[in-house]
Amino acid sequence: MNLIYKLVKSNSFLFKMVYYLRLLAFPLFIRLTWRINNTIENNALYSSIDKDIRGCNNYIKIGIKSRIYGLKIYVRGKNNKVIIGNNCVIGKKCSFWIEGDNNTIIVGDSCTFTHTVHLCAQEYGSSINLGEDCMLSNNIIIRTSDSHPIFNSDRERINEAKTVWIAKHVWIAPQTTVMKGVTIGEGAILASNSVITKDVPKNCLAAGIPAKVVKENIYWSRERLF
């Protein structure tokens, strides 16, 4: 009887050990596989980047001679890309936020962000594309999604994510929000405190909530007036 009792007790102990090891191993396995094949190529002249990446096959590239003074890159998902071109300047408190799969944020060569610029690409296959030599001031939001679904009376979703296209040499002034699905033409200016919900043609000034084109055939320069 003592032998049987010892065997049962021993097997019970082993069973408990296996059970608890499985509980510990499974989350560890998930954490390890959730960070496979993420690639970061940082060629910046100076970079201060806080990276929080969970997923697999994500790719981040920062071009040569770029200066990053305070950028948070947050990624949740797989097959996403963040590409910052050459000679870019990104100021403090900026953030690139990706949630979902196959999303992309691209910042073209020689773009500048003053500070507190938030780019957000969410859901599946959406992207934010900034052409070269764009000038973004401060407290700017550009996003491809509303983050939460909206349905019509038939329970059909009516606010799917949409890509944002911003051509080269676009000036975005402070406190401006660019919403999903918008295309901004080359040389355009988005005035302060505007909410951009529709396309803006090239060489136009758009202002207001929601923004409307208020001037056409305009041109701007990075040259300071003082």
UniProtKB/TrEMBL annotation:
* SUPFAM superfamilies found in the cross-reference section: Trimeric LpxA-like enzymes
> Do the record's keywords include Transmembrane helix?
yes
Q: Where are the transmembrane segments?
A: 12-34
InterPro entries reported in the protein's UniProt record: Hexapep, Hexapep_transf_CS, Hexapeptide_acetyltransf, Trimer_LpxA-like_sf
* Keywords of the record: Acyltransferase, Membrane, Repeat, Transferase, Transmembrane, Transmembrane helix
Presence of keyword Metal-binding: no
| Leader sequence segment | none
Database matches in CDD domains:
LbH_MAT_like
Molecular function per GO: acyltransferase activity
PANTHER family this protein is in? LIPOPOLYSACCHARIDE BIOSYNTHESIS O-ACETYL TRANSFERASE WBBJ-RELATED (PTHR23416:SF78), SIALIC ACID SYNTHASE-RELATED (PTHR23416)
Name this polypeptide is given:
Acyltransferase
| Native source organism of the sequence | Bacteroides cellulosilyticus
